[in-house]
Amino acid sequence: MKDKLTQRERFFTALDLQKSDKVPTFDFLYSPVIWEKILGIEPKYTAKEQLAAALILGLDSVSVPTRPASNYKFAMKNGIYKDEWGGTMKKDPASWPLDAPIKFIIKDRNDLKNLNRLDPDRTERYEEQAEVVSLNKGRVALGGTVSGPLTYAWIYHGAERLLMNFYDDPKFLGEMFKIFNDFAVPYAVNQVRVGLDYMWLAEDLGCSSGPFFSNKMFKELLYPFLLEIVTELRKEKKDLKIAVHCCGDFKIFIEDIINLGVDAIHPFQRTAGWDIAQVKQKYGDRIAIIGNIDSSRTLPYGTVEDVKKEVKETIEAAGQNGGLVIAADHSLHDGIPIENMLAIYEAVEEFGYY
Fold it and tell me: I want to staple 120 with a disulfide (CB 3.0 to 4.6 A). Which of 115, 186, 209, 272 is the partner?
């Protein structure tokens, strides 16, 4: 091991379940406060802005977004617009950088037939990611992101219909999942082709109080599509690192997620009952752990000292032998004071060296 690693090397050493010079850091940067207070700009959530913020914060890794196809024009009125799929979305500062679906366009099979089909091979989707790869010069680990089909179905079919159809019409869900995966697979592969270092596979499987459905339903209906994404990514690049983002309580699924062949899991939310020491003991020789700093309580409402204490506890519980990346247990969102965000990295400097 080198005495001092680059930020990129530090992150990938953790994903290899090894000790580096210190515990690395990552976060999904969802707080306008970061750009306003640190960069002095109004954020637009671009790949270049994500890299700029990551470099100033000293992150070892950051996720950089794609952008819509240039032939698609958003006609917006009062913050409401139709996205590329045809879904009606609303911009809201509370959900930034994501927009909220306010009309679910897939109700039945006829709607599925009439759904806009996106072209995943439009090169302009990935042009700014490619620019960021060049600008980065290998400094931080750059991650792309692809959503699993459940996430797409949640947005365009609606939560109530979606969960009911796990019981009422699982065949219909399978048809819908296939349409979304037919886009997601090449969309993910194209992000690897522009030179990103690794991929995030995002698929929320539970809320704080428990999973959304049974393990049997997960294995039969959703797992094959997630496996397809992982398999095709590895066909493109055999040694590609893949990290899963999964909010909430997904304890009943964790073995199957690991069996997908992924390298890391994020974010192990404290409010969903995750004990990071137990996670490390049970799974730490198979997957890297990313997250676990409480973004619901400690980060928004605690003091700087509370944040530092929690970072120290997480490192002691899960970081001694490597395989840990410190991050919020969801994202850095706009409810978190900037001093508490910075306290995460100050604590890593204080407590995170091996």
Answer: 186
